[in-house]
UniProtKB/TrEMBL annotation:
A Pfam cross-reference name: Annexin
Record-linked InterPro entries: Annexin, Annexin_repeat, Annexin_repeat_CS, Annexin_sf, AnnexinD_plant
Keywords: Annexin, Calcium, Calcium/phospholipid-binding, Metal-binding, Repeat
One annotated GO biological process: response to heat
Name of the protein: Annexin
Record-stated family: Belongs to the annexin family.
Record's comment describing the protein's domains: A pair of annexin repeats may form one binding site for calcium and phospholipid.
Amino acid sequence: MVLSHIASRVLMILDNGVQTKQRAVYRWMLEPADRDAVLANVAIKNGSKGYHVIVEIACVLSADEVLAVKRAYHNRYKRSLEEDVATNTTGDIRQLLVGLVTAYRYDGDEVNAKLAKTEADILHESIKEKKGNHEEAIRILTTRSKTQLLATFNRYRDDHGASITKKLLDNASTDFQKALHTAIRCINDHKKYYEKVLRNAIKGVGTDEDALTRVVVSRAEKDLRDIKELYYKRNSVHLEDAVAKEISGDYKKFILTLLGKED
């Protein structure tokens, strides 16, 4: 999908006097860093319901992209992202979220295999003891490069016979455990993570339009094509066809345009 073609379709929708779902159009028209700054601010205001959005931004984007978001946040709200996250959270979840948005990760490919084994064991103990001290797990997730963390996650699976996220969540999971789960999934394979977000957004009764908009708008000029392919492999239906059945009106036209579906 060519950007100029999408823009022309958006302008056509706006020129037709459409008022519904203007927020989705507005967010798409923002620069990526400014868009994520807005998403982060909304997430903070939503409390525990928005923690996963903070984690997405911190764990999917590169170190330089996260830095750009923090600058955009400061320019827009006259406060630091770290300050607002810290002010609105407590305990382990505060340590994790502040650590994630503060981190400037090494982006190289170097891996320390011995460290991967050691920290896989540390994570195993932290996850097993759900009510224990999570400082070491937080340290690992907020300081290591994504390449190093992938090696650690792979070593975890090899040594402990299951994916690191396999037993992390249950009905009694805390906000911290949910955020940790999201961080690991975003670092491990963010495209698979986003595919599941989309799947959950449109299944069942009602559509989570905030989640649908967030993923489609933020990934439209990045890797939405790959996410669509994953969705088809997982669900045997094209994402645009599934979405078309769940939403309507000019919002539907806008989202389907970003998904690349022509009239």
